[in-house]
Design brief:
This protein is an alpha/beta fold. It has 13 helices and 12 strands.
């Protein structure tokens, strides 16, 4: 018997939408020129590249020249963090971030520490959020970079990014403000200029585009040092021939995004349905509070290790995760920073929704979680 596939791991990656897949095929088979070539095939490709750039810029209320294409969120984060640190090293050595950032930011910070930078890691409260008072205490005149994610990839916790620019300015700091918006782009309104954001990262494969493309918004006037040497592409920030099929497919995925408000209401209805079902399961503890983005809900089934639950659900055709896909099953630094007891951290499950999920998907998940809670052997 073939099981119906229920995919609830959309924070790890998403199914490519038809609009993006068709655009990628078109670029690979018809408009396959190099955008830098000085002939009609190159001009055709350049036009497609700039169309995708325009779509990304429009999403952020930005200028096309402020959009740099990368290979994805990790490269965008690395470029922002290392590039800002190198560009502003003469003006200070302090960097402020949080202990719940994505590994592409955390690991970059560790390397900067090895180079002599002082990195301040702000710890969240039990909800996974930091507060404005922490930021005010940490940001000073020698702070050159503040890097804080908009939405946490494991819990959906929303950070107070709207407060950061004012705090930087009041401190008299030269800091650039970087936001990892990989889990927020296309899901919540983000206008970097209005929010005082200098650098912003986003990824194609989180919004039903293909893997291999991402963007880095660099505010006009903000300067970062490039990490690579090569050609003139992407304002020399990311030189090398652009992966046009992936970039143009990302542009198509952006254009195919539904009305943000309507989709948020739909996703919230799925999340509420899921919460209500989880409340009815005896040994479940919900780790994501009600203020988190509804696209993600993190919970634990006491006594059943994450790997055991994931394998059980996969056998039923239901795909979820135990946290960040980049962590490959390692202990969650996010849940640890939130102060979650080890028992709950070891049994954490992350469910993440997309517009392709249905109420029936949620009902099937709750049914199988209930069965698992009643039948699976508990760890000691």
């Amino acid at each position: 018997m073939n099981l119906k596939e229920i995919y609830l791991d959309n924070s790890a990656t998403t199914m490519v939408c038809m609009e993006a897949a068709q655009k990628a095929l078109e670029i690979m088979t018809r408009k396959y020129g190099n955008p830098s070539s000085l002939h009609s095939k190159g001009f055709e490709a350049q036009k497609e590249l700039e169309s995708a750039r325009g779509s990304a810029a429009a999403m952020l209320a930005a200028e096309k020249e402020e959009i740099i294409f990368t290979s994805g969120g990790t490269e965008s984060n690395n470029t922002a963090v290392f590039g800002a640190a190198e560009a502003l090293a003469r003006r200070g050595s302090r960097i402020v971030t949080t202990s719940v950032e994505h590994s592409s930011v955390i690991e970059a910070m560790r390397r900067l520490e090895d180079k002599g930078f002082e990195v301040v890691y702000l710890d969240p409260d039990s909800s996974g959020r930091i507060n404005k008072a922490q930021l005010e205490q940490a940001i000073d005149k020698k702070t050159i970079l503040v890097s804080i994610m908009a939405v946490n990839n494991e819990t959906g916790a929303v950070q107070p990014i709207e407060a950061v620019r004012k705090i930087i300015d009041r401190a008299g700091s030269p800091a650039l403000f970087h936001v990892d918006a990989v889990q927020a782009f296309g899901k919540m309104p983000l206008k970097p200029k209005k929010l005082g954001i200098d650098l912003l990262s986003a990824s194609s494969h989180k919004i039903h585009g293909p893997k291999g493309a991402g963007i880095l918004f660099i505010r006009r006037g903000a300067r970062i040092a490039p990490l690579h040497c090569g050609g003139e592409q992407e304002r020399r920030i990311r030189p090398g021939t652009e992966p046009l099929p992936a970039i143009c497919a990302m542009g198509a995925a952006i254009r195919a995004l539904p009305d943000m408000k309507q989709e948020l209401e739909y996703i919230r209805s799925l999340e509420q349905r899921c919460r209500e079902g989880l409340y009815g399961i005896e040994n479940v503890h919900i780790n994501s509070d009600s203020e988190c983005m509804p696209y993600i809900i993190n919970f634990s089934v006491r006594g059943i290790r994450s790997e055991t639950m994931l394998h059980y659900l996969a056998q039923k055709g239901i795909f979820v995760s135990s946290g960040s896909a980049c962590a490959k099953g390692k202990k969650s630094h996010v849940l640890t920073a939130m102060g979650l007891p080890q028992e709950l951290a070891d049994s954490a499950v992350r469910v993440s929704f997309s517009r392709y999920n249905t109420p029936e998907d949620v009902d099937e998940l709750i049914k199988e979680l209930t069965n698992a809670d009643n039948t699976l052997a508990r760890s000691r």
